[in-house]
Amino acid sequence: MYLQGPRKLMTQGGYDMVQKLFLDFFRRRLSQRPTAEELEQRNILKPRNEQEEQEEKREIKRRLTRKLSQRPTVEELRERKILIRFSDYVEVADAQDYDRRADKPWTRLTAADKVSRGECWRVGGRTVCWVGTPVGMTVGSSHLPLTVKNLPEDGRLDC
């Protein structure tokens, strides 16, 4: 009878021989393994029992609970430079407290505001608005002023 191995066909006798070689190899390796006593002598395996492990876990839990219950105050943390406030490094000013989600300040700008901010200008009776650098302005012409003519009296532009 033939058994099919990974690369070639093997007879039953050949298969038994390979199996015997593997078993001998692993038996030899297991026999060379150090015993528990040898591992304890080398400080690799620690001699313990269940009671010692439970006692050690209780001690760790007790120590951590004590640390959590004796937390330092805010002043102590500031003295140790652990707790640093944002306002220690940045000047903070008071602001009105209102809902800014619905606030759109750009809708309240008049035409004069937009022109003074450089956001809109009139060309040939038409209002032109942009975000960023205007199309006609080059790097070399940024020092020249933009002139705006034909602004409506109410100051509103159709931007």
From TrEMBL:
It is found in: Cytoplasm; Nucleus; Synapse. GO terms for molecular function: actin binding; protein phosphatase inhibitor activity. Residues 37-65 are annotated as: Disordered. InterPro entries: RPEL_repeat. RPEL repeats lie at residues 24-49, 62-87. The keyword Repeat applies. It comes from the Eukaryota. Residues 37-59 have a biased composition (Basic and acidic residues). GO terms for cellular component: cytoplasm; nucleus; synapse. Its main location: cytoplasm. Keywords: Actin-binding, Cytoplasm, Nucleus, Protein phosphatase inhibitor, Repeat, Synapse. Binds PPP1CA and actin. Belongs to the phosphatase and actin regulator family. PANTHER family: PHOSPHATASE AND ACTIN REGULATOR 1, PHOSPHATASE AND ACTIN REGULATOR PHACTR. This is Phosphatase and actin regulator. The gene is PHACTR1.
